[in-house]
Design goal:
Enzyme I, Chain A, domain 2; TIM Barrel; binds phosphoenolpyruvate; binds magnesium ion; alpha/beta; eight-stranded mixed β-sheet; globular; 3 domains; Glucose Oxidase, domain 1; 24 helices
């Protein structure tokens, strides 16, 4: 916002989600999140709430049935019995009817369900039989499952009568993909962080977003005009005419359609003293390749291919081959690094399609969980899909320059299983006499285990790529989706882990890229260069900033700042020392970008 602004309206702050400004009426949708909302509903909302509850019951029922089908009748008979009990409870008319009555008395679906469930639990707890008392826990699980299903449907069928800024408790990347983009001016969520996949997809789609705005739903009423600044993470309620004018002063960043790409001819990135640094692009959709090229990307360092599976049903082999060849041809002669689909966690298909059912039968009730079944581990359980994707990549590689990397590799066993799968696909292609090409294979290091296995992994991989969004999450037990703090990117522990990998890989003369959001953090990026990173991959919109940052620094300045950071013991100390060391060279750039560090 321009300096000297007159006194203004109420402001709320969250984290930067996707940069850009938007102004418009708020469309407030209360995503039915835990804790259970206590919302009184009007008489004309009853039918819609009843409908939501019915759909949630059906969804949980179909999930439980798929899980039951996937269990072995002999060795998993006990689990099947447990699921039968849950299914039986779901069919209990009294439970459903009691919830309906509460909706009719003016309570939202979650509230009604909670009260109906509590009443049953209370009765069961008073039973004399220990066995029956134990069943209270089952009812509790079931209530939570139905609440989750209600929550997931919270943004289904959001009615956009006109262009608006969506204000909601929580939104997944998949739900965002289902919203009408031409009417979605911006997004404000109470949950979420700047490295969650909602923020990543909003950036890719150029939809300004502010995430993690605590109390947003309490303060913003439906229809209130709001102004959001995604870069600052700020929401202004009922802005003054002056503040509103700021959006129009910045037409280049207010739009949610692709911005004016820099038309500058491609120049390789170097430090001020001429050391080359490669900057490639992270993309979520093949359509972003043009923007990546226009911004001067030296290739695509991370194509998050899972989004091909989240916008509907799973793509078939021919569709994948076509997509990869098209993206690779646009990019030629530069290289396209495909990451095999990284589903799980906050990236799950929605709805009732075949893939959604398969995944829910694998994840069971532990869906949207950051631990366990994620990334390559989950992909291995969807082996036919993974083989199809690898096959498509190897076929496309006959025509364009492709590399393949696998997400969340933590152990050597996981990597060897990946290699066996690729070899199997290669044999099949050979036998079928289908044109294809063997491609370099890489592992993404995203867990502390991966860090410590880097020497062995780098012996068996063609390249490594550091996924620092997840590494930050798993190294510091910092929840990537539900944290209320900014990512602790400058923690010395994180920098020391990266330094370790960089040294190992450099000793072996291997290639190491970094593709998490740390790579374009204004203070961390120079430290990464100082730690030995020479290959970065960042969202297209960040290439210009990263290039300008690197061009202002000499390699020895970066190395000195990095060594100093490694000797720090706290994040604030790292920040303070980095600011002190870098401000003389970068202060002007930060100011021109409106960055306050
Ligand atoms: C990462 O974890 O840093 C990464 C690049 O992968 P994603 O953000 O898609 O999990
Ligand atoms: Mg990751």
């Amino acid at each position: 916002m321009t300096q000297g602004a007159p006194p203004s309206s109420l402001r709320l702050f969250g984290s930067p989600g996707a940069s850009g400004m938007a102004f418009g009426p708020a469309l407030v949708i209360e995503q039915r999140s835990l804790p259970i909302p206590h919302r009184q509903i009007a008489a004309d909302e009853v039918a819609a709430e009843v409908n939501r509850l019915q759909r949630a019951f059906l969804k949980v029922k179909s999930e439980l049935e798929s899980i039951r089908e996937s269990l072995d009748p002999q060795s998993e008979a006990e689990h099947r019995l447990l699921i039968d009990a849950h299914l039986w409870m779901l069919k209990d008319e009294l439970f459903f009817e009691a919830s309906l009555q509460k909706i009719r008395s003016g309570k939202c679906a979650e509230w009604a369900l909670r009260e109906a469930g509590d009443a049953i639990i209370e009765r069961i707890r008073q039973a004399s039989s220990f066995y029956l008392r134990e069943r209270a826990q089952d009812i509790e699980h079931l209530v939570l499952e139905i609440v989750r299903a209600l929550r997931e449907s919270g943004c289904d069928g959001v009615e956009f009568e006109k262009a608006a800024i969506l204000v909601t408790t929580d939104l997944s990347a998949t739900q965002l993909l289902a919203l009408p983009r031409h009417l979605l001016l911006g997004i404000v969520t109470e949950e979420g962080t700047s490295v969650g996949h909602l923020a990543i997809v909003a950036r890719a789609l150029r939809i300004p977003a502010v995430v993690g705005v605590k109390g947003a739903l309490q303060h913003i009423a439906n229809g209130t005009p709001i102004l959001i600044d995604g870069r600052k993470g700020e929401v202004i309620l009922s802005p003054t005419e002056y503040e509103e004018g700021c959006v129009h002063e910045h037409p280049a960043i207010r739009s949610h359609s692709p911005g004016p790409f820099s038309k500058a001819p491609f120049l390789p990135t170097t430090t001020r003293d001429g050391h080359p640094i490669s900057i490639a692009a992270n993309i979520e959709f093949a359509s972003e390749v043009r923007e990546a090229i226009a911004e001067g990307a030296e290739g695509v360092g991370l194509f998050r291919t899972e989004f091909l599976y989240l916008e509907g049903s799973e793509p078939d082999e021919e569709h994948l081959v076509g997509t990869f060849i098209e993206a690779g041809s646009l990019l030629a002669p530069k290289c396209l690094i495909l990451r095999t689909f990284d589903l799980g966690g906050d990236k799950l298909p929605s709805g009732d399609n075949h893939l959604a059912k398969r995944i829910s039968s694998i994840l069971g009730t532990r869906c949207r969980h950051a631990l366990g079944m994620r990334g390559t581990r989950l992909a291995m359980r969807l082996r036919d899909l993974l083989e199809t994707q690898v096959r498509a990549a190897l076929r496309a590689a006959a025509e364009v320059d492709i590399r393949l990397m696998f997400p969340m590799i933590s152990t050597l066993d996981e990597w060897r299983e990946v290699k066996r799968l690729v070899d199997h696909v290669l044999d099949a292609l050979q036998q079928d006499r289908v044109p294809h090409r063997k491609v370099p294979l890489g592992a993404m290091i995203e867990t502390p285990a991966g860090i410590w296995m880097a020497p062995e992994l780098s012996d068996e991989c063609d390249f490594l790529s550091l996924g620092t969004n997840d590494l930050t999450q798993y190294a510091l037990a910092w929840d990537r989706h539900y944290s209320s703090t900014e990512p602790p990117f400058l923690e010395p522990s994180l920098l020391r882990m990266i330094a370790h990998v960089a040294q190992v890989v450099a000793r072996k003369g291997q290639a190491l890229c970094i593709c998490g959001d740390l790579a374009f953090h204004p203070l961390a990026a120079p430290l990464l260069v100082g730690l030995g990173l020479r290959s970065f991959s960042v969202p297209p919109s960040e290439i210009h900033f990263l290039r300008a940052t690197i061009a202002r620094l000499s390699l020895s300045e970066c190395e000195k700042a990095a060594q100093s950071a490694l000797s720090c013991t706290t994040q604030s100390e790292v920040k303070q020392r980095a600011l002190q060391a870098l401000k003389p060279m970068l202060g002007g750039l930060w100011e021109s970008m409106g960055l306050v560090l």
